[in-house]
Amino acid sequence: MSALRLPPALALAVAALLASAPARADEAAPAAPDRAALVANRVACERGEPRCDRTLLLSSIERREVAEALAARGLTVVRAPAGRTVRRIIVVNHDVFGPGDGPLRWFNVFHWTSEEDVVEREIVLRPGARWDDRLVDESLRRVRDKIFTTAAAIVAVEAVGGAPDEVDLLVVTRDVWSLRLNTRFELQQSQLTFLSFAFSENNVFGRRKLFALSFRMDQGAYTMGPLFIDKNMFGRHLDVRGTGGPVFNRTSGDLEGSQSSIEVSRPLWNLDEAWGGGIDFSHANSVERRFAGAGLRRWDAPDTPVDDMLPVHWRERRLAVSAAVVRGFGERVEHRVRGGYALSIVRPELLDDFSGDPDLARAFAEEWLPRSERTSALYVGYSLFEPRYRNYQNVRTFDLAEDVQLGADVDTRVTAGFTWLGSESDFVRLSAAAGYTGAFGDGTWSARVSATTRIEDGEAIDNIVDARLRLVTPTFELGRVVTAVRGAALWNDRQNQYYRLGGDSGLRGFDIDEFIGDRLVLWQTELRTPPVPVWFMRWGAILFYDVGGVAASFETMPLHHDAGFGIRGLIPQFDNDVYRFDFAFALDDDRRGDFRFTGGFEQVF
Prior knowledge:
Elements: H1 8-18, H2 35-46, H3 60-73, E1 85-94, H4 116-120, H5 133-143, E2 149-158, E3 166-175, E4 179-188, E5 191-201, E6 209-217, E7 221-233, E8 238-249, E9 255-266, E10 275-289, E11 291-292, E12 295-296, E13 298-299, E14 310-311, E15 313-329, E16 334-349, H6 358-368, E17 373-385, E18 388-392, E19 402-417, E20 427-440, E21 443-456, E22 459-472, E23 480-491, E24 499-501, E25 515-517, E26 519-528, E27 532-534, E28 537-551, E29 560-570, E30 579-586, E31 595-601
Parallel strand pairs: 1-3
Antiparallel strand pairs: 2-3, 4-5, 4-31, 5-6, 6-7, 7-8, 8-9, 9-10, 10-15, 11-12, 13-14, 15-16, 16-17, 17-19, 18-19, 19-20, 20-21, 21-22, 22-23, 23-26, 24-25, 26-28, 27-28, 28-29, 29-30, 30-31
């Protein structure tokens, strides 16, 4: 589920209005010490030392929220609660617009603030238990849900009237404005390549349930229909989601298909849960399209004397049903064993207006259409990860807290399809991924490798290997550097898969999906300034450089370069993700100076 957003034009109009109102009193928030003290405190917290001060792990926005709650309730923070007993849970849910937002507080009338019991039931550390930073962090990850919450914090406070060895657990949240026209877009040059919006109530009756009428458009088609999300149905941590609707051609408006999905699951909602599971169903009947720049990609058959200029599109019908169960166990390392059943039917076919003879149609299908098949398979899987997390700002979000999982993680899966079970072929699919994320200062580094193959009739097909490295440097005076390298390859592929680069897929200075092939190399680097508060907003800038290529082989791959600058913005009352505006210039000899603009949401990588 993508993040839910106010339309940018409306958000910026609201920003202009708010700029004339007095800002909230940031001075009420506890002041953060110097960087060395912050690093030392973070280490103390990760080691579980009594001198850990959890308030110093908060972002400036969260410290402000806590300060407002403390002042309103007359509470005092306990900065080192280790070893003390939790007497009770106090939940303070702030309205979207607060005292410093002037006349816009009137808009709170159109928002259901989350009910206290809805937030409290997400808290894993319960009254009567000893303060446990691990359980507090786990609770915070659950409360910090970007669909409903823009800021969240948990701290210990003095238990007024309680025993000396007791503390109260204070949970402070500020909701995202719930009744709104949520939007998400991607703009490249003059082409609106993606647009979605939904008239929704994100927080029905304050119970954190979402109902919406949604619209979604890509370069070739658009769909509309209802959307429902309830992550805690009946208060039993039962996650229920559903959507669906007709699909229309973007150019002509003609009906060309439909899509739907329903998912019901009981996830392992905390690390001490033992059993989970779920079932899901999805279907799609639509026209698949491949683009190059603003238009449909054109295909020329290699064996014909003329340029055929055939548009790359076809009809595809898909149906998928699956059921799974998962068993979790472990403490310092969390282990998950899962198993289930999956039915998948994929039926691609050429469109009725395909303009070509049978030989040309056969050649087109061999190069572009995925495999037509029905698979009925059983699978088992095993994964592990270290439940160690660290709080960061200005990595994927922008001056809002985000949790990054540290340590090792491994995921493996074996899937076996059988004709006696209804599959059209017998096969075994193997997949595995392993990675590690480490921390230094307030930065991170990570490495991850994944691979998959399918064994059928004694042959390994649909082989994929993907390797990634990522570095987020500690913050320095200018900000921080974020850089990522990726190399990937597929071979003996029977699904007609391709890697694509260009535009938002990796090279911002080139056309959308300009380069395609079986091998990919990409390196992206950004220098990101710290977020600068401008009244209630946050703004920053970036400098970036991209280099990458896609080709049939690494030996024949030309590398393409671009560079540019960008602007990042955040209006936390409406969004958790940043507004993104990038200005890119191609650096290749034959394209040097070509300019492209990209606008949208979320960081590029």
